[in-house]
Amino acid sequence: MGHNSQGSKAHVQCDGLMMDPESRSDTWPDIQIQNPHVTVAHEAVVGKISDEQLFYLQSRGLTEEESAAMIVNGFIEPVTKELPMEYAIELNRLIQLEMVGSIG
């Protein structure tokens, strides 16, 4: 936030989803505020697909792969809904290809 940003408000949200035991997330937020009359909020969450989430979806008739795909698609939905439809479809296809064989 620069010197002339008086009255500005910003909210930054950084979420991460760990897809395997080897994944890691290192973050170093750098928020530079040069005006005392602004509001800046930052939050971050990093997690993995839990066994409880998988069990819940599987108990409703989904396979483990379908359950994991549903969780991942729900995680990325805020991003894909902002993309043009053709890009969102392609992103979903790439994620599905990447996930083939990744569970079990």
Can you give keywords for this protein?
104 residues, alpha+beta, two-stranded parallel sheet, 3 helices, 2 strands, elongated
Task: Provide structural commentary.
There is one protein chain. The model has no long low-confidence stretch (mean pLDDT 85). This protein is 38% helix and 19% strand. It is elongated and about 55 Å long. The chain has a two-stranded parallel sheet with strand order 1-2. It folds into 2 domains: 48 residues, no CATH class; 55 residues, no CATH class. The chain has 104 residues and is α+β, with helices and mostly antiparallel strands. The longest helix has 17 residues.
Shape: elongated
Order of helices and strands: EEHHH
Distance between the termini: 46 Å
What is the percent of helical residues? Answer: 25-40%
| Spatial strand sequence of the major β-sheet | 1-2
Q: Please tell me how large the radius of gyration is.
A: 18 Å
- Ranges where pLDDT stays below 50 over 5 or more residues in a row are none
Tell me the count of domains. 2
